[in-house]
Structures are given as C-alpha cells and as structure tokens.
Design brief:
The complex is a heterodimer of chains A (278) and B (286). Chain A has 278 residues and is an all-alpha fold. Helix content of chain A is 74%, strand content 0%. Chain B is an all-alpha fold and 286 residues long. Chain B has twelve helices and two strands, in the order αββααααααααααα. Chain B has one domain: MetI-like (MetI-like fold). The chains are: A mainly alpha (278), B mainly alpha (286).
Chain lengths: 278, 286
Amino acid sequence: MTSRSQARLGRSILLHLFLTPLALVWLFPLWMMVVFSTMPDNGIFSPGIELLPHDSFLDNVANLQRGTNFIGAIGISVSVAVTYTVLSVLLTSMAGWALARYDFHGKGAVVAIIFGTITLPYAVVLIPQFIMVARDFGLANTWIALIVPPLFNSLGVLFMRQAFSMMPAELFDAARVEGVKEWRIFLFVALPLARPMLAALAIILFLASWNNYLWPLLINSQPGAMTAPVALGTLVGLTKVSWGGIMAGAVMLTVPMLIVFVLLQRHFIAGIAAGAVK
Amino acid sequence: MRTQNATAYRFLTPYLLIFAIFWIWPIISSFLISFQATRTVPWRFAPAFNWGRLIGDPAFYNALKNTLLILVIQVPVMIALAIVMAVLLNSPLLKARGLYRFAFFAPVVVGEVAYSAVFRLMFSLDFGIVNKLLESVGLEKIDWFSNVTPAMAVIMIAVTWRWAGYNAIIILAGLQSIPEDVYEAATLDRVSKLKQFFYITLPLLKPVIVFCAVLSIIGTMQLFTEPFLITERGGPGGGTETLGLLLYRQGFRSLNFGYASAVAYTMAGLAIAITLVQLWLTREPK
C-alpha cells in the first residue's frame, strides 16, 4: 500500500469514528420516541434503562384516544394540509408565473414589497390576523381559519418565479404563435415543465401545514376543531397523563413524515436548499 | 417581454389579495395597535401607553434577556455544528452516506409539539433517560427543569437538535456549488485539507453561512413552542420565558393586544436590524 492511500484510509477511519457517534446521538430522540410509544406507562416510569421497543403501542393509542379525540384531530390535520398545499401551490405558482413572464405596471413594487417584508417575523401579524379572523370574520374554529390565512406565505412565489424565469422563452412563444391562450400555456406548457419544482414546493408546504402549531393553537382551540399537534400539546404538561399515549401521538405525527422524507428526499432537500443558493 | 397588464394581474390577483389581507395589512395594523390602549372599549389612541409600559416592564427585560441569551449561545453552536455536518457529509471518503444523511436531516420533518414532548420526557428528573444514563456512568442526576441554567440548556439542546440538519442541508448545497477545480489547484500546490477548508471553503461559503445565521436568528427570536411545552410556560418562574412567550401571554392570555403588539414590533425591529447587518456583511465589494 502506498503512503498516500494509507493516509486516505486513516482519514476515512477518523471521519467515521467521529461521525458515527454524532449520528447515533442525533437519532437517539427519534429512537426513544418510538421506544416510549411502545412501552406501558409503568415501564416509562420504572428505574431501569429501556432502549428497545415493547408491544404496548396500540394500548397507548387507546389511552391517547381516551384523553383527546386524536384520530379525529389527525383527520382534520390531513384534510387541512392537503387543501392548503393544493391552494398554496396554485396561488403561488400563478403569481410566480406573472412575475417571471410578463411586464406590467407595478411589477417592481410587488417584488420590492415581497422581498422587503420577507424577513419580518411572523409574530408581527399574529395579533391582527387573530382579531380579523376570530372577531371581524367570526371564523374561529373553522377549517377556513386554518387554511386561508397561512396562504400569504411568499416563499412559494419567489421559488416559482425563479423556476419559471429559467425556462427558455421560445417554448412559450411557439405556443403563442399558434394562438394558444395564456392560461392554457401556463397550465399545459409551463406547469408540466416545472414538475420537480412543484413537487419540492408541495412537500415543504405540506410539512409546514402538518406541523403548524401556534396559529392553530390560537384560532382553533375548541376540542372538536383542533389539529393533531394542538390536541397533543394540550396533554403535554398535565399531571395525570399517559406519557405512552403522548409518545404514540408523537409517533403518529412523525413517522409518516419520515417515510415521506425517505421516499422523496431529493425533493425535500431541493425545497430547503432553494431558499439559499440562487 | 411585452407589457401585458390585464393578463399579468389575472394571474397575480388571487395571491395578492391574500397577501394584502393576511400579511401587509396586519403589518400596518399591528403597528397602529401598539399605539392604542386596548383594554378599554372602544380602543383609544394613547401613543405612550404600551411603549411606556414596555420600557419599564421587568417581564419584558427578562424575556428579552432570555431570548438574546439563547440567540448568542445556541445559534453559533448550531451553525458551527451544521458546517461540520455539511463538510463531513460532503467528503468523498464517506461510506453509507444515506444513513448519515438520514440521521442528521430527519429532525427537519419532526413537528415542534412531537419533539418538545420527547425532550421533556427524556430530561425528566426521576425517570428521564438522560438522568438514567448519567447515573449509569456514575454522574449525579440533574434536576433539569427546576433551575434556570439547566432548563435553558435543555431548550438550546432541543432547538439545536431540530435545526442543525436543516442548516446543514443549505450549507451542503452551498458546498456543492463550489467548483472542483478550486481545490484541484490547491491540492497540486500541496495545501493541506485543513488549510483548504479555512482559506477556500469558508470564505466561499460566507454568504450561505450568513444567510443561515440570519434565518436562525429570526427563527430563534420568535421561539415559542419549546419554552411553552418543554419548560412548562417559560418555567421555572419565568426563567425561560422568551419574547414569543411574553407575546402569547400578553396577547392571548391577558387579551392585551396593544401591549402584545408593542412586543411584536420589538421583535420586528430586531429582525430588521439583523437583516441590515446581513446585507452589509454580504454586500458586493466595489
């Protein structure tokens, strides 16, 4: 073996010796979430160290369901996240298309306002949004309250504007010469070409809606109208509560997303990285 | 591009309506509300009412101090860790890359409530796995949630766990956009890997790192769920109360919208200051 390949081997071993414990530490909370969700409560409170799953997951789900209608809340969360994702992808890709592909009066102002306010903290709009939706519109504890206000998110607009402006103009001009209407060009030429970007955007938006906590906590606080994270949050901190049940809820919120993440990792990472690298 | 006002606005209007109603108007409205006394009916204009109270409120300074303390410690540690993760994940020597990526990136999909619940359980005094592990190696167990310092530490650990991989994804994308030939030249000149990292990689990554830092600062500044759920409403005794939690308590527990709006605009002011620093740090050299 040459000295260079020996040095390479040494560096490789060092790399794995450092990264493996770090990766295990990073996986530990997720692993423990799964382990806790399968343990009976008296197991969680026992003095021994338990690092392997047991078989009480379904009992824990039943315990959880006794404390709050979690399955119902999951139903609300799924419906809201799907509806929000479809609407948001549609609205933001239409807006992104207009900003990328047409010249119009006020375009500079629209872009400047979107960019100028994008780093403002969400906390700033929380109170007026709440007053408007709950008091002025009387929509607290409805699906509209969960779905519509978060549609303001402008990241999708910037993302889709970027995607559409990278496409060659000839693609669309050819269709225009044939007399195809603009909305048909958007629907049947531009959107299919943007499929990978749409997938990345949809995943990020779905995840954001699925995990959203603060707004649903404020606006849909009635038991029958709660999303799953809010319903689970009401149990955290109660004194007489089944921790196995809470962990089973956490698993039901998390594991489906982990599976989606593994299957669609490329789109996930594209969606997250898109914010930074232009 | 031809000027096509009608067509463009047909595509743009649905989004712009939502954007104006649920983002632009609330930004203005929140500013106006912060100058009103909102616990009388009707609300009345009283410019010094909330802001005057804010300046003299020990609870505000406590929340500001806690928020800044978390920012100053947690963000640099997390960004450094994210850089290390990204650089090592990018190494051509790494085997089973997919497994390592999964380990570091998985927390990105975990919701705030789910992970807050797990951390709370892991760090509980008598039956938490962390204390059990500490005792099993002969260390004293720690009462994480009854004292301010360990309670703050748990919040910082939790946030770092949740977001380090997210930042590593962004930094990794930045790393992969650095052309290979930059390193080839340096390797031919026998520049060590470590020197290459400090003199080539880091300077080229600066805009991405600054971007991550700004995102993280603005995110951490609004920290709410972790002190709400992990340390039980900012406990012990307000020791982990953040600006986000103060806003929640004032706005939605005491229904004091005016004062809560003043707190919100303090956060906005901090965010604007941070953004200006970012623009200055990443300005194009003349």
